[in-house]
Amino acid sequence: MASTSRRWWWWPWATPPPFSSSASRHHKGEGWGLGGPALVKAVGWLLLAGLLFRVLCSFPSSTSSPEISEGKCNLFDGEWIPNPSGPAYTNKTCRFIDGHQNCMLNGRPDMSYLHWRWKPYECELPQFDEVRFLSAMRNKSWGLIGDSILRNQVQSLLCLLSKAEEPIEVYHDKEYRNRRWHFQSYNFTVSLVWSPFLTKSEVFENENGQSTSEIQLHLDILDPIWTSQYETFDYVVIAGGQWFLKVAVYWENDRVIGCHYCQDKKLRELGFEHLYRRTLQQVFRFIASSNHKPAVLFRTWAPDHFENAEWFNGGTCSRVLPYKKGEYSGKDMDRIMRPIELEEFRNAMAALGGSRNSANLKLLDTYSISSMRPDGHVGPYRYPFLKGDKDAKSVQNDCLHWCVPGPIDAWNDLVMKMVLG
């Protein structure tokens, strides 16, 4: 049956998900009327609760990065510190920024989000060195496989690299979703491979995101768009994302086995968690069994920072400062998807058993550093935006994708450190 829902083409789901975030459950005006002894007792309980919270927070989290080991710097555990020098490039020095992430050009008035850098607690994370990176990647090929968040990261990577040499675009498909750039002096290529589900899918949406039918997903078949190119890449960055939350019908062995949120169909509800887990298992199995052994970085879940509501009912992200360590505990969806990722990554590493192949698979754990940057999203600045515009309240905010330049540049700092040491 045709779906009447509508979403912006860039957004990961076509209909509101069947859940509410913790933020949407709070109501103004709720509280307690306290006075006299009751107030003293309440304060006492608050102090005790605060102490217990600090004690509990001192224990390791079940969702901590598998990369942590005693005596080894954990690149993903740290804080954002002031960076007076600002970004490595701007929208004036880089021409590879997509219009929807060009916050400077689109009128974002504050620039404070550009003056922070990621600092791991036990070591330094050098800023991206474009000459060193390109020199090390001479005659190599990179493939970045995923959805629009991977495209977001590719924009940052190209801007950083173009400080040394501007690449030539040598391929794009009709929709500009699959693209390839070549750095001639280094014979180095960067490919953006559009595969939002990583598995084989049929998507019935036009360029404006209007859907005429549910997405059809094949849980037992990986997307040939990326698997057919896999052997051409020396390095791979691969990730899933919010597309897994979409309304979809699930297939296995050429038959329908269920769906996610198909309210008007008599199908078994399997849920997106089932889809995500099965997909990651398939992906890691493919990587382990392939005769071709590129270096693979599995990038973790990208958080959003919608507040007051969600993307479909007026959610915004207007903060102008990063969160401090421990200040933000994540959203309901983070606490569902992230443990699945970490568990399946650990299982994949265990299956490799410390073999040579295990050295080729790394966790690019961008979740924590991203979750602390609510100030770095595009917000209302997807298009040219003027403060005071009479239609400002009706502007849809993007609190998932990142401004370029912005916090996402640190993802590529991490990539360089992990690849080149």
Q: Could you please describe the fold and organization of this structure?
A:
With 421 residues, this protein is of the alpha/beta class. The protein has one domain (87-420). The protein is 24% helix and 18% strand. It contains 8 helices and 15 strands. The strands form 4 sheets. A 7-stranded mixed β-sheet has the order 4-5-6-3-9-12-13, covered by helices on one side. It has a 4-stranded mixed β-sheet with strand order 7-8-10-11. The protein has a two-stranded antiparallel ribbon with strand order 1-2. A hairpin with a 2-residue loop joins strand 10 and strand 11. Helix 5 (272-289) runs parallel beside helix 6 (332-352). The longest helix is centred in the first third of the chain and has 21 residues, at 37-57. It is globular, with a radius of gyration of 22 Å. The protein starts with 36 loop residues before the first helix and ends with a helix. The model is unreliable at 1-11 and 13-63 (pLDDT under 50).
Counting structural domains, the number is: 1
Number of helical elements: 8
Q: Structural class, from secondary structure content? A: alpha/beta
Total count of strands: 15
Note the overall shape: globular
Q: What's the rounded overall pLDDT mean?
A: 84
What order do the helices and strands follow? Answer: HEEHEHEEEEEHEEEHEHEHEEH
Low-confidence regions: 1-11, 13-63
Rounded Rg: 22 Å
- End-to-end separation: 52 Å
State the strand order across the main sheet: 4-5-6-3-9-12-13
Largest β sheet strand count, sense and barrel closure: 7 strands, mixed
Strand content: 15-25%
The level of helicity is 10-25%
